[in-house]
Amino acid sequence: MKSLVSSSSSRIRSALVQYGGLLSVVAVLALFPLMGPSNKDLSLATSALIFGVAATGLGFLWGQVGEVNIAHAAVFGVGAYTAGIAAQDHGIDFVPSLVLSLIAGAIAAFIVALPSLRTRGHYFVILTFAIGQVAVVVATRLDDLTGGVDGLTVIPAKQEVVGLRLTDRQDFYYICICVAAVILTALLLLTRSRWGATLRGIRENEQLAAAVGTPVVRHRILAFTVSGAVGGLAGQLHLYNVKFVDPGAFNVQASIFFLLMVLLGGRRYLLGPIVGAAVYTFLPEFIFLDPGRSRMLLGLILVAMILLLPQGLLSLPSRIAALRANRAGSRSVAQADRVDEVDPPTGTGTGASPLEPPHEVVEAPS
Amino acid sequence: MSPLLEAHGLSKHFAGVAALVDVDLEVNAGEIVGLIGPNGSGKSTFFNVVTGFLRASSGTVIWKGEDVTRNSAHRRARKGLVRTFQERMCFDDLTVRENLQFPLIQAKSRGNSDARIAEVMEWVGLPQRTLTQRASELSWGQTRLLGMAVALLFTPEVVLFDEPFAGLNRIAAEDVCAALLRLRAEGITAVVVEHEMQLLLPLCDRVVVMARGQKIAEGTSADILEREEVRLAYFGAA
After folding, report:
1. Mean pLDDT over residues A159-169, rounded?
2. Is B219 in a helix, a strand, or coil?
3. Residue A354's pLDDT band (boundaries 50, 70, 90)?
4. What is the interface size between A and B, counted as CB pairs within 8 Å?
5. Is A360's Cβ below 8 Å from some Cβ in B?
6. Distance between alpha carbon B198 and the CA centroid of its chain, in Å?
7. How large is the ipTM?
8. Strand B66-67 vs strand B17-27: parallel, antiparallel, or unpaired?
9. Which residue has the higher pLDDT, B102 or A156?
10. In chain B, what residues touch A362 (CB-CB under 8 Å)?
11. What pLDDT score was predicted for residue A338?
12. Which of A86, A221, A265, B126 could form a Cys-Cys staple with A275, CB 3.0–4.6 A?
């Protein structure tokens, strides 16, 4: 029973690591404006944060359920258009429009999920790709509502949210941090809940999950809806950040950039997409590349990541630890081999005696 | 007493090919029924249709007097009809503990889950030290035992074991056999699909033999071995 009893301490440790990590990232983000960044850097940080939130929605779906939704940028666009139309046509303020975009994103993702969930694997990805394309065409054709190819330009009325001005670059950055912190905490709670465990079971083995009474389709649709709610909300923040939205903002290429952010940071880590978005946004700036070359670089990074670090940048510490452990293990095996070489044939050395049965019988699959 | 599980005239066609033809089966509480037959005889199709992973082309599945033919797999499981799988038996990238907690979460089980997990691990003979290991790190035989434990933790009324000895060497197969014998002693009701007759027959109260998608014989283990049609199906000669 010893190993069972130790489960509670490992749970506490993992909670401390996860909540501590989240708190540290929020603290670092909050301290960034105090370092005296230029207006451009602050704008980039705001964009990275918004894209990071959008990618977190996608990462939740990919990491927890194992589904890739190429229509995620379309959901992000639905959130942005909802906020734009709400502000422009109905004069709705920031906070209610945030809620509206969240609901619109959830509904859009629910609609994407319904037909998509009849398919699996590559077919599923292709179907979401097609839905994403259709969404761009619809947004282009509905010019009365969306402004067509010209898009919507929205100048929000002067507003304050808990004393922070939307029109002030630094204040808006802090608003984004607050929203991101709430979203990340909510997703962390969901991930650590029984529902999170259910989603991971579905990700690992859908048939077995169904065999022990799990309504797989219902959970998958719900996970899609949560992911879409986060995407829609990020779309609203994006609109208030750039004051403009057009169909180009949520085409399939945008979805691929979100996927890249998730992949860069690590899809199994809640903070992975935030880290990925920061790298995606700032890396081309650091190495002074024009947009064309930076895309080439990002393509190369994507290939390198898939080959060398498929679990993302956040998996680097555990990867290094595993490599060190392997090296230490192989060193001790080599030492044991040397000891065996000088041991008398009675089998009293540290190596296993050929007369003793192996500690564990390992069966090979047929 | 009426049977727990009944299958009446179950058939399944794939694009015109008959994989299952008019099969009947009854399973009573507390018995272990073996379902044997050569490869391609329709055993797994029958399992999939009974548990709701495939929809029957015709026929009915009755669970405790209720027609569940149109129920999904998870609904049948929630009613007490749980199965294991021949391949992909567990949640590979989760730890053994997480694998074992999964059915308890789905069953909305209250009480001491650690004690329940320890009890079932002992039943099936899965070592406690494996709890923190990833399921993908287990040996093939231990993975089978884990799959059985996952099914049992959902507290089913009938468990359908799909080829529990498949791919195992002799030692591992004996471990699985011992686990099934312990479960039998606990009074569990089970249907076991297998084509390894030597291992299966001593476990079963009753054996059903299938060939070419049809039920060709039914009886006790001793009866079955004497039947000419069974020898024909297995060896091609009486």
Report:
1. 83
2. strand
3. very low
4. 114
5. yes
6. 17
7. 0.90
8. unpaired
9. B102
10. 139
11. 55
12. A265
